[in-house]
Amino acid sequence: MPTSHRRLTRLSKPDDNPALSNMRPAFVLWLLVMALSCQSPTQPAPAPEPVQYSVPGEVEPYVQIFRNLARQYNQTVQSDNLIITFGKTTEPGACGQCLLAAGKTPRITLSVDPSCWQQASANERECLILHELGHCLLKRDHLSTRFPAGMYASLMNPDDTGVYAACRYPIDNDACDKRPRREYYVSELFDTRTPSPAWATK
């Protein structure tokens, strides 16, 4: 019977062939160049918006109060780049909302709900504006901490912008007049190390 013969071909390794060995560094370099050339070019960052300032006349006095307080507490705050408007907030029940975005002018929307501004007292309006400026200009987040007596420890709390206002419908004369607490809350807004007040435990 005829016997079949298979011809065995030895596959050489790159090191066995000087020509291939010399080509290896160039081949690796070529692969690296091709990989880099396939990457998407880095998109340049969008140009920042120009400085702009637009605040309703009835809100401006409270922004000025914020500026004066910032100077009093030695805080350097850029308050000339700001937009405040009355409108609809995206969060239900919120009287104000701060919108911050990279390269964009800080924007505050004040709710058109009558109870938030039209029916609010001067102290309530001040609390609201200082709270929103705390977000937009001081870059502070909400703080839900409470004192032992139950009151919020910061004007930056999530749901009470009347922490140093008098009650709209007073009961027992001055029983709910919280205006004496203003000094503490304003101080804590600009300095979170402010010591707890005496009334915090009563």
Mean pLDDT: 84
β-sheet strand percentage: 5-15%
- Oligomerization category of the chains in this entry: single chain
Tally of helical runs: 4
Write out the strand line-up for the largest beta sheet, numbering strands in chain order.
1-2-4-3
Low-pLDDT stretches are 1-15
Order of helices and strands: HEHEEEHH
Structural class: alpha/beta
The proportion of residues forming helix, as a percent range, comes to 25-40%
Which structural traits does this protein have?
28% helix, four-stranded mixed sheet, alpha/beta, 202 residues, elongated, disordered N terminus, 4 helices
Would you give an account of this structure?
Helix content is 28%, strand content 8%. Strands 1-2-4-3 form a 4-stranded mixed β-sheet, covered by helices on one side. The protein has 202 residues and is an alpha/beta fold. The longest helix has 20 residues, at 18-37.
Brief summary of the model shown:
28% of the residues lie in helices and 8% in strands. It has 4 helices and 4 strands; from the N terminus they run αβαβββαα.
